[in-house]
Amino acid sequence: MTDVDILIIGGGPAGLAAAIAAHEAGCRNVLLLEREPALGGILRQCIHAGFGMHVFKEDLTGPEYAQRFVRRFHELGLSAQCDTMVLSVTPDREVTAVSPAFGLQHFRAKAIVLAMGCRERTRGALQVPGWRPAGIYPAGQAQRFVNLDGWMPGRRVVILGSGDIGLIMARRMTLEGAKVLACVELMPFSSGLTRNVVQCLDDYGIPLLLSHTVTEIHGRERLEAVTVAQVDAQRKPLPGTDQRFECDTLLLSVGLIPENELSRAAGVRVSEVTCGPLVDEALQTSVPGIFACGNVLHVHDLVDHVTIESTEAGRQAAKYAQGQGEAGIPACQMLQIRDGAGVRGLVPQTVCAGRVADVLPLMFRPAAVFKDAAAVVRLDGEEVLRKRFRILTPGEMVRLVVPKEVLERHAGAGELTVGVEV
To answer: Residues near 349 by Cβ (< 8 Å), separated by ≥ 6?
Structure first.
């Protein structure tokens, strides 16, 4: 059994930021475990620009953004094991991992940071009729093929779903010479960032078919075509609206799922809305000493927000490992955080106002598209904060900041809600 102060699971942008923050907060015995052969996570294959505008005030590609943290990680002398698969995490913060270089290992940590990221939904979750021919890929897998491995998945492409990876791959496949026939979205709005709809579809003349879905897959050995139909308000296909697209490739961009199998096995309570751990203002889960950040907590739209959140998780994990987690606060009334009308997946879910340093950041996704709307924060029904937006969409996360003095003025409150008002 090897003892460490802080053990971080995941070497993507979340894990790297948490490790750096923990070291800068005074923890020197920090170990990061990563299952891929190199640090950087998903950013290694995201060769497009659009990263770093908030953190660095620069427009960087994914590898450039990741490399800044990898470089800082090594400058600080932090330790990482790549090609290492974590097999289990216990509520007592004991971790079992295996790797070709070190074999089976057991670690005991004072604090753990979960930063495993998320995975894509696959065709098996969609239940679309048809055979299982070659040519159907999650959009992120296709991105890896093209950007890291140099393989082209196909030449005539339909994209199901309008998540950011799917939108970006519509542009990427076009630039590599493929013909992208359409991007098909079940909902009446795009689930990706507006800028990606404009830059990746509109700029290349690729149609976005809202309120449509793939109803049948044709081909047995290799994909030959897909049938697309319009759907009604209940998301059921409308008779007589079928279109057939002759294609050899179908990319799926139909949602991301936080990788929380290890979290559940450790006894961490998981939200039914975000599919990530339930956390408090310190990003600590329901298991003391286990923290969560990044896409394993809730799926983000901007990596800059992942970095900001994970930096805080690293600091809080360091405080816990140093025995400062709840110092000086003998009793703390927990404030329950609730989704109001038009809001989905507020994070964090509980707050101790006495432990908030300066401000309480709240993040959520709108439940629908709202124009000229306001996000309203209430404490026990009393409005304490209102922020107006020209437009709110489910594809773009909203970040609100509640000052500590507002919480202190309502010290006896038991519930905080955030809702959208038009």
So the answer is: 271, 278, 279, 280, 336, 337
Q: Name, in order, each residue with C-beta under 8 angstroms of 333's C-beta and a sequence gap of 6 or more.
A: 352, 353, 411, 412, 414
- 103-114 vs 118-120, strand pairing mode: unpaired
Q: How far is CA 140 from CA 151, 159, 213, 223, 247, in A?
A: 13, 12, 19, 19, 19
Average per-residue pLDDT for the chain: 94
Check pLDDT > 70 for residue 330.
Answer: no
What band does 128 get if pLDDT is binned at 50, 70 and 90? confident
190 SS3 class = coil
Average pLDDT over residues 115-119: 97
Cis bond upstream, residue 237 (ω within 30)? no
pTM for the model: 0.94
Q: What is the DSSP string of 270-311?
A: B-TTTSSB---TT-B-SSTTEEE-GGGTS--S-HHHHHHHHH
Please report the beta strands in 315-409, taking only residues with DSSP state E, as ranges in sequence order. 334-339, 343-347, 350-352, 359-366, 370-379, 382-392, 398-403
Checking if the pLDDT of 233 tops 60, the result is yes
- For each of the domains in the chain, give its residue range(s) and CATH number, in order of start: 1-120+255-325 (3.50.50.60), 122-254 (3.50.50.60), 328-422 (no CATH)
The secondary structure element, H or E, covering residue 262 is helix 261-265
| Other Cβ atoms closer than 10 A to 48 | 17
With a cut of 70, say whether residue 94 has pLDDT above it: yes
Could you tell me if 291 and 311 are in contact, meaning their C-beta atoms sit under 8 angstroms apart?
no
Element (H, E) at 59: none
Among 18, 140, 27, smallest CA distance to 69 is for: 18
Report the sign of the C-alpha dihedral through residues 163, 168, 173, 179, in that order.
positive
